[in-house]
Specification:
about 375 residues, Glycosyltransferase, two-stranded parallel ribbon, 6 strands
Length: about 375
């Protein structure tokens, strides 16, 4: 197995809401939240505070003991594992690590190692490289059918939580090798499937860019850029042939904000573009306008489609954590911070500096 490489050192609708709070005012209110997750994310993403600031570091450290972090980890056994299938939606080890990464749980906690081992054993086990988990046809050797979002989320969570290791490298190299000719990935087992799935492409793109940027992995960066071009070729949300919204075969409507589980929608697509430093691309403009149009009179943004129902017991599509209010007319703090961060980054992209921006490499 490969060794870990060396680490390298504004809107349409808002103008119609006369008297509505500005994004800065909303971010400042959320930055004063008693919830360290909300406060940290508001200060860093929406207001641009540096993570090196001692106050910000203390806020992130406090997330480990927050009610939301404790809830996410409440299913653990004494040995640190969760006795569920790793991909059990949404309380298994895989989704637990993704949830912790989503709330910016502080990196480097050795107590998470048992969960990481469960995920690695699942994704890298021999049964995963053969049908029905992974399928390929002799006449289509360059179109491996694989749920690449699973690998992508595992890579991204490992990086965010400071758990990356040689297993993470193996997942990265597998994704790069299995990228489809059009730049994405697909889990559709039908022979007639000839183009990539956006739900299976956005998550790997984000993960590969994060890994490539951190470790100078040219292959990962190149793969992420190819994936970004695929998404951008449809202006993120719209079909080539008739300009209508993309209609996924599974998952929610792409023009409605989904949370906390994100596969593909307007907000997540733009978050990925922000992380890949692509919000300055004109092909993001329509999606940015759509996102801005969702701003509510209080200045916040709604969670339009809740993915995962809060439960204190194991349940199908359950989550142990509370992710805030849902509904088209109610602001959700996590969605609001994410949306404000994207819009702030889009404005900053015009000047070439922003929270996510990194120097482009020749791999792009």
């Amino acid at each position: 197995m490969a060794a870990l490489p060396e680490r390298h050192s504004s809107g349409t609708k808002q103008g119609l809401l006369l008297g509505a709070p500005t994004g800065t005012h909303v971010a400042q209110r959320l930055a004063a939240s008693d919830d360290p997750v909300v406060a940290f994310q508001a200060r860093v993403r929406a207001l641009g505070a540096p993570e090196s600031d001692p106050v910000i570091r203390d806020l992130r450290a406090a997330i480990a003991a927050s009610p939301r972090a404790r809830a996410l980890l409440s299913g653990r056994e004494p040995d640190g594992t969760i006795r569920l299938y790793p991909y059990a939606k949404f309380q298994g080890p895989h989704w637990t690590l993704v949830g912790l990464a989503l709330i910016d749980y502080p990196p480097g906690d050795p107590a998470l190692a048992p969960l990481k081992r469960q995920v690695d054993s699942w994704l890298l086990g021999p049964f995963f490289n053969r049908p029905p988990r992974t399928v390929w046809y002799p006449e289509q050797p360059d179109r491996v059918r694989r749920c690449a979002s699973q690998d992508g989320n595992a890579i991204w969570a490992a990086l965010r939580l400071g758990l990356e290791d040689e297993h993470t490298v193996a997942l990265v190299e597998r994704l790069v090798a299995w990228q489809w000719p059009d730049g994405g990935w697909n889990c559709d087992k039908r022979r007639e499937a000839r183009s990539s799935s956006f739900q299976e492409t956005a998550i790997p793109a984000r993960a590969l860019h994060a890994f490539g940027g951190r470790f100078g992995h040219a292959g990962a960066l190149q793969a992420a850029e190819r994936a970004a071009e695929l998404l951008l070729s449809r202006r993120l949300l719209w079909r080539h042939r008739d300009g209508a919204l993309i209609q996924p075969e599974w998952g929610g409507a792409v023009d409605r904000i989904q949370f906390p589980i994100q596969f593909y929608d307007v907000l997540f697509a733009l978050q990925v573009m922000a992380e890949l430093s692509r919000l300055d691309d004109p092909r993001c403009a329509d999606a940015l306008t759509l996102l801005e149009s969702k701003r509510l009179p209080d200045g916040g943004f709604p969670l339009e489609e809740r993915v995962g129902v809060t439960r204190n017991v194991v349940a199908s599509c359950g989550t142990f954590a509370d992710w805030g209010p849902a509904g088209a007319t109610r602001s959700n703090p996590f969605v609001t911070v994410a949306a404000l961060g994207v819009l702030r980054e889009a404005a900053a992209a015009r000047t070439g500096v922003g929270f996510y921006r990194q120097p482009r490499t020749s791999s792009g």
